[in-house]
Every structure is written in C-alpha cells, then in structure tokens.
Amino acid sequence: AQTSVLLREAGDGVATLQAKVAGASIFLPGYDQRLANDSVMLLYQAVSQCRDKVFPREAFRFKTRKAPPADMSVLIAQLRREVGTTSDEAHLQGDTDGSKLDPELSFSDKEGHTLVKLPGEIDGRDFVLSRLKDCTVFLCDACGAVRADRLEGCRVFVGPVRSVLAEKLDGCVFGLAAQQLRIHSATLCDFYVRMRSGPIIEHSTKLRFAPYSLEYPALSTQLQASGLGVDSGMWAKVEDFNWLRSQQSPNWCVLPEGEREG
Fold first, then answer.
1. Per-residue pLDDT tens over the stretch 112-139
2. Is residue 105 helix, strand or coil?
3. How far apart are CA 97 and CA 147, in angstroms?
4. Nearest Cα to Cα of residue 130 among 180, 160, 96
5. By the number of CB atoms within 10 A of the CB, which of 59, 119, 181, 242 ranks highest?
C-alpha cells in the first residue's frame, strides 16, 4: 500500500513540475523549454515503468490509466494566449493614431527637433513617442508607461518609468530606467538602461546594451522613489525571444566601454 502511495505521489509531483515548467516558458529561451519538456517526459516514463514493474498489468483486463503529460508546446501556447506575447509579427501594436494623442503627453510627427519634458510635467502618467526622425528627446520626469514607435535616428533619454514598449526603431540611442522593457523590430540601436528585470527583444538585430548614464538634478530622488535607485546589473540580462539556443544571441551584445557615451 505504501508503494502505491509513493508512486501516486511521484506521478502528482511530475504533473506539478510540468505545470511549473509551462509557467516558466514565459521567460525561458526556446532551447531550455525543450530541455525542460524532455526532462518532464523522462520522469513520467520512469514513474510509469516503476508502476508497471510493481503492479504488472493482468492479461485481458482494461484499466484506466492516466494519460501522459500533454506536449509542453500546447501548454505554452495556452499560457501565452492568457498572458500575452508579441513574439509574432502579427502582434505588433500598429501605428499610433496621432489625432487621438494628448499633446501634453506625447511627441509625434516631428523631424530634427529637440523635445523636452521637465520634472513635474509628466508626473507619473503614460507618454507616447511616435513617428519621430532625427529628434533628441528628454523626458526628465517619472512616467507610468512609455510607448515609442517608428523612431529613426533619434536620441531618447527618459527618467524612471514603469514599463517601456519600443517598436520599429532604426539607428536610435535610448537611455532609460525601467521596471520592464520590451523592444520589437529594432535595428542598429544602443540602449543605456537600468532595469529591475532583463530587457526583452524580439525580431531585432544589431542592438547593444550598456549601463544607464543619464543625469539631471531630480533624477536621483525619482529613481529612489521608483525602486530603481541601485543598478542591479539586469541591463546585461537580455532575453531574445527569437533565439532558441542557450548560447549568446547574435542579435545583441554589450556595448564596448570605449564606445559608450559619457
């Protein structure tokens, strides 16, 4: 009886482990997802083999057996439908409708301008940058969420922000401190960042990352208030959702110190 209990507990443990691996797929690289899935299946087979040895099946009897764990890809797809991902091109957020933007909380459709928001002018609200070319942007205030799309040849420097979604970038430089950062469809861009979690990149190439280096009088107080007062080193923990191996992704690198801006 005790053996039966142990086998049942082992089976339940494998099922629990499978659920945890599926949940971790939101941040695990594809290569590691496959390794984890294979490990769960091997555990299931080992438990099943032990059960068959201890309790051999009798001939001419039908028994109800637990089905093997579902393929991990099925669970991962379900989780991503629930949690959300932009890993497919179809998930691009699309062009921002400039007519619907609040002019006090956005910069859009400009070329060759220097655009500035001073401390207190954003005050933790969301901000949008859209369709800018060869512009220099300073958001010297704490922001809720920042969305940047269709930026070309721009330099963008941002104070502490909860989350950033940056899409369709070409030849830009960003300096920002954020709880979360997702970069989609960017090329030839440098990011100077301070993060609470690793930046996520998708459908992007030739990106470089370095520590946050922005300075202005109120920044230190703003960073402390936003929980970003200390550099955790997460700026270099970049996750490339399109790179399926455990080796370094070819789509990003650390910006060499000799090439970093002061």
1. 999 999 989 999 999 999 999 999 999 9
2. helix
3. 13
4. 96
5. 181
